[in-house]
Amino acid sequence: MMEIPKLKHTASGNFFLIAGPCIIEDEEMAFPIAERLLGITDKLAIPFIFKASYKKANRSKLGSFTGIGDEKALTILRNVSEKFDVPVITDIHSKEEAALAAEYVDILQIPAFLCRQTELLMAAGETGKVINIKKGQFLSGASMRFAVEKVRATGNERIMLTERGNMFGYGDLVVDYRNIVEMQQNNVPVVLDITHSLQRPNQSSGVTGGNPAMIETIARAGIAVGVDGIFLETHPHPENAKSDGANMLHLDLLEDLLTKLVKIRKAIVS
User: Fold this and answer.
1) Containing H/E element for 51?
2) Cα 198 to Cα 6, 216, 225, 250, distances in angstroms
3) Tens digits of per-residue pLDDT, 218-256?
4) Is 140 buried (19+), middle (13-18) or exposed (0-12) by CB count in 10 A?
């Protein structure tokens, strides 16, 4: 695992965890979630990175919630990092956002739909931050080497790749676990997104659906294959979340899931 500021438990042999709510909803919501996640990951010795988008630029419907304001949300993310002494990650959507977000967070994430955007990838790389590139739903794992090459062309070797499923028809995704092995050939950490991989996009309502009952199945298989990290979105009240609630893991279910995954991890590395 590359060096990431404030990342703890790196000698534990565990996978690392990127987790948090989909988006910063208000000033109060992030802190209790971060505190709960930190308590669980400290107990299980799992390296933990707090995740939340500071805004959403790719909602289906015009009236969907997109954020509380860029600098306000980014400040909350920085405050989470300082209060709990954990690294934080957020999405960026344009080259102009790269430098702005880099002032507040430790890791910049490239959304799956934007993983081929050359200017965005290179602007992110030029910040010197760790860059997590989510694999497009329309791409193979092998083709992600070109995204890696774009960031490396800036002199930045601090790269991660995330698998989040491939389109299967119009309204479902499927995870091809070969993608994990293929993307690891780039000598970068590979993450499995166990919540977005269960999205059901393109619903007639204009709101993306999901199948959270399968989160544990997807996660267990990923750990067994040897994924380096797990990405998930979680919320104390997914039914009330302002983005992606349909495929989130309820926060109360997280400790039990992670406990099982740690046991699988120990079995495969022993």
Assistant:
1) strand 48-51
2) 30, 11, 18, 14
3) 999 999 999 999 999 998 887 777 766 677 899 999 999
4) middle
Q: Write down all domains in the chain, each with its CATH number in brackets.
A: 16-269 (3.20.20.70)
Fill in the amino acid letter for 213. A
pLDDT tens digits for range 123-168? 999 999 999 999 999 999 999 999 999 999 999 999 999 999 998 8
As a whole number of angstroms, the distance between CA 92 and CA 149 comes to 19
Residue that has been written with the tokens 């299967």 in this structure: 168
Residue 204 CA: distances (Å) to CA of 53, 63, 155: 25, 15, 44
- Provide the CB-side half-sphere exposure for 209 (13 A, CA): 11
Measure Cα distances from 230 to 69, 188, 191 in Å. Answer: 28, 14, 5
Say how many C-beta atoms besides its own lie within 10 A of residue 145's C-beta: 16
Q: pTM for the complete prediction?
A: 0.93
Q: Is residue 155 classed as helix, strand or coil in its secondary structure? A: coil
> Alpha-carbon distance 190 to 56, whole Å?
24
> How far is 66 from 73, CA to CA, in rounded Å?
11
Residue type at 121 in one-letter notation: L
Q: What is the pLDDT of residues 89-107, one digit of tens each?
A: 999 999 999 999 999 999 9
Say if strands 209-210 and 199-200 run parallel, antiparallel, or are unpaired.
antiparallel
Rounded CA separation 28/248 (Å): 19
Q: What is the pLDDT of residue 200?
A: 63
The continuous run of DSSP H or E covering 124 comes out as helix 118-126
Q: Which two tokens stand for residue 19?
A: 């987790």
